[in-house]
């Protein structure tokens, strides 16, 4: 009897020891329903593109400011590839506890039109935290290309022998959408060359391996001043404050579908994340972005703070998905690659 009891007791102790890690793990992810104690450990902010591009820059600025507001580290992790689908999908399937959030942009709303399996649904798999900024993209070519302006670029690109190519961050990424939109408007058919992000794309552009690319102004201005890149035109209705000599596509008579208001960026959490945590993140984000040092850092790069409520950003993203449905269909019908 004593031996039998001892064996049972030993078995219970062993089972308890096996369960401890599970209990600790469960305790670690549990959060009060009101989110009062959140966050109690670092938050991971997923960027779905390579480091160095506009999405990465905006995310790192937001993460730095959020860390100060929340009194907890917000760590940026780049998961680039597949035009952003890898990163977006990762966030969609993360634990909805507020400790994994992601950067979203225009490509987030339209990627499914260009890829069969993105691994996420922008309207079902996320809770919007809030918009962070709005910006634009500019068309650039190597300064050594001899292309002087937009008209000469288009004229050359219309020649079958030109072999014109535009670097993108993958099918359905914002640079790809801009390239497609411009190509339809200008009646040209360049080869779209995908990269894991625009930083490696610009490296190849500078080396002359591709003809041009749509990049964020923050990537272009410095290189243009160094006489390495030539900026041909900017998306949007008004000229950039930091590059008043660069005309807009609208000025040149080109209406780029889907890009009348430039580009946008924001943050999202997995669906199922408690509202209290989403609201806490939104309030902290809006306070952080209102800090003068944040705006002072972004505005010289052609990036402007644009904050919302979670519901406001959710409605905005929904409208973007709906409006891009028709635009993307026209783009795919008009382009072969």
Distance linking N and C termini: 78 Å
Q: What best-fitting shape do the alpha-carbon axes yield? A: globular
Fold-level CATH name of the largest domain: D-Maltodextrin-Binding Protein, domain 2
CATH superfamily of the largest domain, called what?
A: Bordetella uptake gene, domain 1
Rg value: 23 Å
Sheet of most strands: 6 strands, mixed
- Strand portion: 15-25%
Which percent bin holds the helix content? 40-55%
Helix/strand structural class: alpha/beta
Low-confidence sequence ranges: 1-30
The CATH architecture of the largest domain is 3-Layer(aba) Sandwich
Number of E-type strands: 11
- Please give the count of helices: 11
Total number of domains: 2
- Overall mean pLDDT score? 87
Query: What is the H-and-E element order?
Result: HEHEHEHEEHEHEHEHEEHHEH
Task: Give the strand order, joined by hyphens, for the main sheet.
Answer: 2-1-3-10-4-11
What is the CATH level 1 assignment of the largest domain? Alpha Beta
Structure notes:
The chain contains eleven helices and eleven strands. It is globular. It is an alpha/beta fold and 337 residues long. The protein folds into two domains: 166 residues, Bordetella uptake gene, domain 1 (D-Maltodextrin-Binding Protein, domain 2, 3-Layer(aba) Sandwich); 97 residues, D-Maltodextrin-Binding Protein, domain 2, CATH 3.40.190.10. Helix 2 packs across helix 9. It has a six-stranded mixed β-sheet with strand order 2-1-3-10-4-11, with helices on both faces.
Layout of helices and strands, plus pairs?
Blueprint: H1 2-29, E1 43-47, H2 54-70, E2 74-78, H3 85-92, E3 100-105, H4 106-110, E4 126-135, E5 138-142, H5 150-157, E6 165-168, H6 174-186, E7 191-194, H7 198-206, E8 212-215, H8 217-225, E9 229-234, E10 263-270, H9 275-289, H10 292-298, E11 304-305, H11 310-334
Parallel strand pairs: 1-2, 1-3, 6-7, 6-8
Antiparallel strand pairs: 3-10, 4-10, 4-11, 5-8, 5-9
Helix pairs in contact: 2-9
């Amino acid at each position: 009897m004593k031996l039998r009891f001892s064996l049972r007791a030993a078995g219970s102790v062993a089972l308890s020891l096996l369960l401890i890690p599970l209990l600790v793990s469960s305790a670690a992810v549990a959060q009060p329903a009101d989110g009062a104690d959140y966050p109690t450990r670092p938050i991971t902010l997923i960027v779905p593109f390579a480091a160095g591009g506009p999405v990465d820059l905006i995310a790192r600025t937001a993460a730095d400011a959020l860390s100060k507001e929340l009194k907890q580290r917000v760590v940026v992790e780049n998961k680039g590839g597949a035009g952003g689908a890898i990163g977006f999908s990762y966030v969609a399937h993360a634990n909805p506890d507020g400790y994994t959030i992601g950067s979203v942009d225009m490509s987030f709303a339209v990627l499914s039109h260009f890829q069969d399996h993105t691994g996420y649904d922008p309207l079902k798999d996320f809770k919007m935290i809030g918009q962070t900024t709005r910006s634009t993209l500019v068309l650039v070519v190597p300064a050594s290309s001899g292309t002087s302006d937009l008209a000469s670029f288009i004229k050359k690109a219309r020649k079958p022998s030109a072999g014109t190519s535009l670097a993108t961050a993958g099918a359905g990424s914002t640079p790809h959408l801009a390239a497609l939109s411009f190509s339809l408007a200008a009646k040209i058919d360049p080869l779209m060359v995908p990269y894991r992000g625009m930083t490696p794309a610009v490296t190849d552009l500078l080396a002359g391996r591709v003809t041009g690319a749509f990049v964020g102004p923050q990537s272009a201005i410095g290189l243009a001043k160094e006489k390495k890149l030539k900026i041909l035109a900017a998306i949007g209705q008004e000229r950039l404050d930091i590059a008043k000599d660069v005309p807009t596509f609208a000025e040149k008579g080109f209406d780029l579908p889907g890009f009348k208001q430039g580009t946008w960026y924001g943050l999202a959490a997995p669906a199922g994340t408690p509202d209290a945590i989403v609201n806490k993140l939104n309030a902290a984000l809006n306070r952080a972005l209102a800090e003068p040092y944040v705006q002072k850092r972004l505005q010289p790069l052609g990036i402007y703070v644009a904050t919302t409520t979670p519901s406001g950003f959710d409605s905005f993203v929904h409208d973007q998905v709906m409006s891009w449905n028709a635009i993307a269909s026209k783009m795919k019908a008009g382009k072969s690659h």
